[in-house]
Amino acid sequence: MTTIRHLSRIALAMLTITGRVTMLGLSRWTGTGGSYRTIQRFFHTPLPWAAILWVFVRTQMLTPGDDVLLVGDECVVTKAGTETFGVDRFFSSIFGKPVPGVALFALALVSRR
């Protein structure tokens, strides 16, 4: 429960903070219970993000009896150079051949209502 409480305070601070987002800035915007050291500990703690996101979706976005589909889509963004992480050759249907770029893949839940 402590980690969840810290997550809620830090997330609210991230949404309301203006200017640069730093750990010092977050500690100022979190108020009580969000000291600089607490924020350092939170970001150093490994969290099961897949489980956290699923619990959030299940409790806040789905109602019992909903039919949902898990869909995915991939797109390739052409990129010149070699400095960007993940640059490789990927097939692009627009060009009809492998091109240098970055492939992005997204998953979404789609309601069948």
Task: Compose a concise summary of this entry.
With 113 residues, this protein is of the alpha+beta class.
Q: How would you describe this protein?
A:
The chain is α+β, with helices and mostly antiparallel strands. It folds into two domains: 2-47, no CATH class; 68-111, no CATH class. Helix content is 39%, strand content 27%. It contains four helices and three strands. It has a three-stranded antiparallel β-sheet, with no helix packed on it. Helix 1 (2-16) packs across helix 2 (23-30) and helix 2 (23-30) crosses helix 3 (36-44). The mean pLDDT is 88.
Q: The biggest beta sheet, please?
A: 3 strands, antiparallel
* Tally of DSSP β-strands: 3
Choose one word for the global shape: flat
In helices, the fraction of residues equals 25-40%
Low-confidence stretches: none
What is the mean pLDDT? 88
Topology pattern, helix = H, strand = E: HHHHEEE
Which percent band covers the strand fraction?
Answer: 25-35%
Distance between the termini: 34 Å
Radius of gyration: 20 Å
> Count of DSSP helices?
4
Work out the count of structural domains.
2
Structural category: alpha+beta
Strand order of the largest sheet: 1-3-2
